[in-house]
């Protein structure tokens, strides 16, 4: 009878452990799962924003421009289309569980793994952006900079408040803060041109002239030029000119530009 009782208790305990295992796995953060991979490369995918597509080391963000790297080859992803839509494919290179590099691709399909590769599969967008933004906040300058861009192309997640905090954080490396300022500026530019109908005809010629004037103004390294660009971004009737001014303000790293970006983005929430 004693042996039967022990067997029953053992079976019950094993049943409880088995029932807890899935929730334990789910409770692991993405950072913990990446760290557990040890050395090598960690692959994951997550949903991309509408309008984002990629081919090789080129990623198009629709009307927001294209990001390109020096090489068109990838050891991890291959493509059949000129601009393949989502998902975002993220590769984290790790050394003893520590992320040493982030590489970002969109679309295509994974190549057959070479070397030690851990595939985490498709992960929730919020988990992916939390993982990336944590890297931006805590990692070395290079990894932090590489982690910003993929967070900006994640679907249905607002990341500019976190980037704004990083941009204002004096404890973060200067280059990381510059990247954060740039992408907050991009978000502000998208906000002022949202739902903008395409403008053609005579206005297009005039716009080119005015965009050239905005560029010339942006090259003047003085406080007055920042003031003028902010005025253009606030009041110009042409949304594309306002977006151009916001782009160059994003290159300025001026605290007044950050305040303007926050004002524009908060207004749209």
Description:
The chain has 269 residues and is α+β, with helices and mostly antiparallel strands. The chain folds into 2 domains: 128 residues, no CATH class; 79 residues, no CATH class. The protein is 52% helix and 17% strand. It has 10 helices and 10 strands. Strands 8-7-1-10 form a 4-stranded mixed β-sheet.
Produce a short descriptive summary:
With 269 residues, the protein is α+β, with helices and mostly antiparallel strands.
Topology:
Elements: H1 2-27, H2 30-36, E1 40-46, E2 53-55, E3 58-60, E4 66-68, E5 77-78, E6 84-85, E7 88-95, E8 98-106, E9 109-110, E10 117-122, H3 125-138, H4 141-152, H5 160-167, H6 174-192, H7 202-218, H8 223-235, H9 239-250, H10 255-267
Parallel strand pairs: 1-10
Antiparallel strand pairs: 1-7, 2-3, 2-6, 3-4, 5-9, 7-8
Mean pLDDT: 80
Largest sheet: 4 strands, mixed
Strand percentage lies at 15-25%
Q: Strand tally, please?
A: 10
Helix content: 40-55%
């Amino acid at each position: 009878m004693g042996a039967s009782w022990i067997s029953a208790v053992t079976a019950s305990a094993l049943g409880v452990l088995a029932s807890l295992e899935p929730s334990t796995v789910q409770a692991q953060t993405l950072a913990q799962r990446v760290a557990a991979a040890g050395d090598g490369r960690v692959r994951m995918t997550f949903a991309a924003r509408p309008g984002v597509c990629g081919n090789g080391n080129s990623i198009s963000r629709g009307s927001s421009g294209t990001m390109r790297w020096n090489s068109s080859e990838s050891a991890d992803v291959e493509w059949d289309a000129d601009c393949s839509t989502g998902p975002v494919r993220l590769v984290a290179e790790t050394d003893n569980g520590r992320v040493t590099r982030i590489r970002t691709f969109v679309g295509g399909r994974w190549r057959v793994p070479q070397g030690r590769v851990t595939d985490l599969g498709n992960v929730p967008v919020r988990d992916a952006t939390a993982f990336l933004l944590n890297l931006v906040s805590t990692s070395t300058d290079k990894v932090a900079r590489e982690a910003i861009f993929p967070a900006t192309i994640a679907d249905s997640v607002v990341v500019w408040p976190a980037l704004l905090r990083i941009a204002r954080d004096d404890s973060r490396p200067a280059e990381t803060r510059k990247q954060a300022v740039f992408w907050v500026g991009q978000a502000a530019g998208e906000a002022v041109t949202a739902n903008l109908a395409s403008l053609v005809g005579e206005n297009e010629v005039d716009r080119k002239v005015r965009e050239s004037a905005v560029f010339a103004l942006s090259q003047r390294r003085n406080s007055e030029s920042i003031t003028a660009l902010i005025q253009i971004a606030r009041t110009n009737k042409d949304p594309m000119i306002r977006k151009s001014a916001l782009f160059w303000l994003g290159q300025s790293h001026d605290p007044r530009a950050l305040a303007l970006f926050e004002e524009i983005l908060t207004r749209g929430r």
